[in-house]
């Protein structure tokens, strides 16, 4: 299977990121002055960047404070699809500078990580460490689950309509049969999605979700 393109990931990110951050997650449109709370817009913006997604994935795996240099090496290895030992100094340096000077400070400002710039270490904040974050990674030849369910609903609605109007062979089909078909299609789809979601959670063992789905 071809690797999902960055554009296919970003185009579905806003509708497909799901989190369980509890009270730490608030609506981006709320005006209650809760500036120290993580908003949905914060989550979408942070996860829209590949390096930040990789960083969160690694930090959730380690579940402890780590050196920025170690984090940068693992992110660089995933980006370049090679073992850490095979990375060039330029590949390591490029990711390290990006994290050290930009991404980690931004994530710290938004309450996702505790970044100690002086010591060069970082750890996830409790709200993110205890959260389950799923990404829907869509192959360019595939469609997002939201669009799939919309199409499935339309198809089932057409089936019900043809049966109700007794069009052609549908006149011989009973209401119970149609109900079974509709429930079965949604049940199978839900089972498939559940199994896939278990493989695309940030922090699970292995590489980041988009690389695992390649």
Label this structure with key terms.
214 residues; mainly alpha; 3-stranded antiparallel β-sheet; two-stranded parallel sheet; 9 helices; 55% helix; 7% strand; elongated; disordered N terminus
Report on this model:
This protein has 214 residues and is mainly alpha-helical. Helix content is 55%, strand content 7%. The chain contains nine helices and five strands. The protein has helices at 6-16, 40-47, 50-62, 68-80, 89-109, 126-129, 145-164, 175-197, 209-212; strands spanning 25-26, 38-39, 66-67, 113-116, 121-124. The chain has a three-stranded antiparallel beta sheet with strand order 3-5-4. Strands 1-2 form a two-stranded parallel sheet. Helix 3 packs across helix 4 (68-80), helix 4 (68-80) crosses helix 5 (89-109) and helix 7 runs antiparallel to helix 8. The radius of gyration is 22 Å and the shape is elongated. The termini are close together. Mean pLDDT is 79; it is low at 1-36.
